[in-house]
Amino acid sequence: MSDPVAVVQQYFAALAAKDFATVATLWAEDIVWHQPGGNRFSGTQRGAGAVNAMIGGMMEVSEGTFELALTGPPMLNGDLVAAPIHFSAKRSGADLGQDGVDLLKVADGKIVEAWLFSSDQPAEDAFWG
Fold first, then answer.
1. What angle do CA 67, 55, 23 make, to 5 degrees?
2. 26 contacts 6 by C-beta, under 8 angstroms
3. What does the pLDDT look like over 40-77, one tens digit per residue?
4. Among 4, 64, 79, 122, which lies 20 to 30 A Cα-Cα from 109?
């Protein structure tokens, strides 16, 4: 699959289904992931293993409740896809729910780089700690 929008749509469908095996097949082995903010998951992750570990950590902290879904159609500019999203999670004593944008670079049918944007970064940082 080489259509960047189709790759991104498949990625978000797999995330919504919590089908992390499929999610991982859509990342390039050398993916570069830019996670915003100032929390335990923030920073640049390099490689599919590091991104998998970060997502696994988010699932652990959120007691398996972390969810992410498209809220509108992905928008294409060359090999970049901007995806409007909503994400949410819960853990003992805290709830997180906000909108954002994921900007994903796609090459050869794989997500090779990701930049994430949150509508309320301080609240996200407080949730993840």
1. 75
2. no
3. 999 999 999 999 999 999 999 999 999 999 999 999 99
4. 64
- Please provide the DSSP assignment of the chain as one string: ---HHHHHHHHHHHHHTT-HHHHHHTEEEEEEEEE-SSSTT-EEEESHHHHHHHHHHHHHHTTT--EEEE-S--EEETTEEEEEEEEEEEETTEEEEEEEEEEEEEETTEEEEEEEEETTHHHHHHHH-
Biggest alpha carbon distance in the chain?
43
| Average predicted confidence (pLDDT) for the chain | 95
pTM: 0.94
Spell out the residues 6+ positions from residue 33 whose beta carbon is closer than 8 angstroms to its own. 44, 45, 46, 50, 51, 54, 113, 114
How far apart, in whole angstroms, are the C-alpha atoms of residue 85 and residue 102?
7
Question: If we measure between CA atoms, which residue out of 41, 7, 43 comes closest to residue 25?
Answer: 7
Residues facing residue 87 across a β-bridge: 68, 98
Residue indicated by tokens 């853990």: 91
